[in-house]
Amino acid sequence: MNERSAERHAVWVPVQVSGESGEVTLGVSDDVSEGGVQIVSPVVREVGSKVDVALHFPDGTKRTVTGEVVRVEPNEDPDGLFPHRVAVAFAERVEGLESLLVEVESLT
Questions:
Q1: d(CA 54, CA 73)
Q2: Helices (H), 45-96
Q3: Burial (CB count <10 Å: 0-12, 13-18, 19+), residue 22
Q4: CA of 108: how far to CAs of 55, 58, 99, in Å?
Q5: What's the rounded Cα separation, in Å, for the pair 71 and 52?
Q6: CA distances (Å), 11 to each of 1, 20, 79, in order?
Q7: pTM of the complete model
Q8: Residues 50, 65 contacting (CB under 8 angstroms)
């Protein structure tokens, strides 16, 4: 069983994912915690690859976090703009991210 130690938030914020070779992809979060993020993405990332994820919040705050791709699966709409779901586990827990996530949730 996969236990998570951080509260998860179903928030949609723009993300920018940068890979080890410098490629950059835009996507949208759909599940975020201080320990990781699930992103709907136009491209597949290889499981085990290291990435930097920049989360862009509505108030202009940007948090960039290093992590590892731990899961890739098809999105519910495989013919849409974001046909893939990419889960990234952060290398370190992101302190202070929780308050930003709660603030975004309150906007919806």
A1: 21
A2: none
A3: exposed
A4: 18, 12, 15
A5: 16
A6: 24, 26, 22
A7: 0.87
A8: no
